[in-house]
Request: fold
Amino acid sequence: MNSSSEPSNARKLMWRISYFSSISFLAIIILTWLHVDHHYNPNVDHLISVESAQKNLVDKLKKSGINTDQPFTFISTGVFIQSLNFSSSNNVELTGYIWQKLPSTKNTNQPIKPSFIFPEQVAGSEMKLAYQEITGDETVYGWYFNVVLRQKFDYLDYPLDHKTVWIRISPSHFDRSIIFTPALDSYKSTEIGHVFGVDEGLVLGDWEIDETFFDYKTVAYDTNFGTQFKAQHYEYPELYFNVVVKRKFLNSFIINLVPLLTVAVLLFALLMTVTVEPKKREAVGFNFTGVISIVSALFFVVLISHIQLREQFSEDGIVYIEYFFLLMYFLMIMLIINTYFFSRGRAVSSTFIMADDNLMPKLYFWPFTLGVMAVVTLVTFVF
Reply:
């Protein structure tokens, strides 16, 4: 009696180990997801005051080898975003207002014409002067814009990705004595981590805003554009307005991960029907042809979802969620191989890992599946 109970107790212990390891791997995955989704480190280099903007600009000018003692014309420039939409993986459609403060024409011998460009702007964009107001010695010009900006984004962390959408604002001519400065005094608060310069009713769909900020980025040119722009000044600081957004993880989880987890559960259920005992086979309806049919159906479900995902990020490498699709393909292949050998009879099934009525594959299915997912998650987001 003791000898018959020992195998049963050993099997129970192995199943408990399998359950415990699976739950541990699942906990690692979920905790990593929560950490990445809820923890964002604000950009510490952004401009929060007029003084910090001036200091940052001077440092970048000196670093580029530009003489800071020469006379510059500083034009205060502000941005307000009313809508933001990812029209494709690398195109962002934006609407809103941009304004500039310039010295009044009557107070200068050589009036400066208000003008700017968005270098990443593509065809189909609209720009028009919306208002003009004289206040003291300055004239404020405000434009309404509806532009599509072509930008390169990294989607390798999808669906736990953060994106920085930037509006690069440059003078429309190559007068390097003109420098745009952020109109930080036009906003209620520009502190680190705050959101400003966007409409409170902004609809972002699958995204939400983490923060907005102005900064200067040094832009490198390999030409002087035929002007007297000196070769050593090919790197020049330009003004950027940045909107940092993060993807709503719940939406992507339901769309991508829930179907994959469902497929994994169905594959495990199929694996549990694999047996060499005739009575068990009859009870669960196990046969090799039936398994092939079900796995084929699941394969096309996964494949169609994978193709739709790949079409979104065709220019990127393998994104994070794609490793789960590859894992599903591997599990399907291994299940078919396992089922094939079992369908050949007891002589084959009593050898190698399929001994004891295919116990080892059944024990290792969830620890292996969740373990691979945990390793991929840690490598992608932690290490």
